[in-house]
């Protein structure tokens, strides 16, 4: 199973005494590392339990959303290869994500396709006790809300990732705040909307670069 761990390199701290955050990706005994392009102080990294604890600083929330998006993007590309019985090369996935190689694909990836692949893989992690059922419910909820949004606002069942624009994200945020309904409750709490949009924007940035 694919495993992604984030760590900092304190020996490479910048002039602001912040350390670069790296990702270690492992699969079947092989592993690679890649820079996330994000920085954090050694003290804050430790204080927040490697950004896994409760976060109150906005900058750290954005960094966490970016790391979550990187995980989702890597897992999506990995699972697409796995689904097509293709050879898994972690370094090639890394190169593709960093935008250093143009990869031709016959089928365009839709936004809901990403959620389908991610949630299915997340479900396996729940079965092995690596993730909580509550977290899986949140991802399923997010997918359902996007599906409702696409049908209500655009009269479509899916949208190609490359067609996602800033206006799309703005409309999604407005929908979540004022029009969405979940289990009979109209309008989502601002804290959920902010968290969802932070994650969505980070994911969009990673995919579009």
Write up what this structure looks like.
This is Phage integrase SAM-like domain-containing protein. It holds the Pfam family Arm-DNA-bind_5. The protein contains seven helices and five strands. The protein is an alpha+beta fold and about 210 residues long. The chain has one domain (about 50-209). A hairpin with a 2-residue loop joins strand 2 and strand 3 (about 30-40). Helix 2 (about 60-85) packs across helix 4 and helix 6 packs antiparallel against helix 7 (about 190-209). The protein is globular. The model is unreliable at about 100-105 (pLDDT under 50).
Features:
209 residues; alpha+beta; 3-stranded antiparallel β-sheet; two-stranded antiparallel sheet
Output the radius of gyration.
Answer: 18 Å
Mean pLDDT over the residues: 81
Q: Which shape, going by the Cα principal axes?
A: globular
Helical percent range?
Answer: 40-55%
The domain tally reads 1
Low-confidence stretches: 101-106
Kindly report how far apart the N and C termini lie.
27 Å
Secondary-structure element series? EEEHHHHHHEEH
The portion of residues forming beta strands comes to 15-25%
Topology (SSEs and partners):
Blueprint lengths: L2 E6 L9 E10 L2 E12 H6 L10 H26 L6 H9 L12 H17 L5 H22 L11 H13 L2 E2 L2 E2 L3 H19 L1
Organism: Flavivirga aquimarina
Protein name: Phage integrase SAM-like domain-containing protein
Pfam families: Arm-DNA-bind_5
């Amino acid at each position: 199973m694919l495993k992604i761990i984030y760590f900092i390199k304190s020996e490479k701290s910048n002039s602001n005494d912040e350390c670069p955050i790296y990702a270690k990706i492992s699969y079947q005994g092989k592993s690679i590392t890649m820079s996330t392009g994000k920085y954090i102080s050694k003290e804050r990294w430790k204080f927040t339990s490697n950004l896994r604890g409760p976060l109150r600083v906005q900058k750290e929330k954005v960094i966490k959303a970016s790391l979550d998006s990187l995980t989702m993007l890597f897992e999506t590309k990995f699972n697409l290869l796995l689904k097509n019985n293709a050879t898994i090369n972690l370094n090639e996935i890394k190169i593709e994500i960093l935008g250093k190689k143009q990869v031709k694909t016959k089928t365009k990836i839709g936004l809901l396709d990403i959620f389908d692949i991610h949630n299915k893989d997340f479900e396996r992690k729940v079965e092995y006790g690596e993730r909580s059922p509550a977290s899986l419910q949140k991802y399923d909820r997010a997918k359902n809300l996007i599906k409702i949004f696409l049908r209500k606002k655009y009269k479509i069942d899916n949208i190609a990732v490359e067609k996602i624009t800033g206006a799309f994200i703005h409309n999604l945020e407005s929908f979540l705040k004022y029009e969405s309904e979940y289990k009979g409750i109209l309008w989502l709490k601002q804290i959920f909307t902010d968290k969802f949009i932070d994650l969505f924007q980070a994911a969009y940035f990673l995919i579009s670069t």
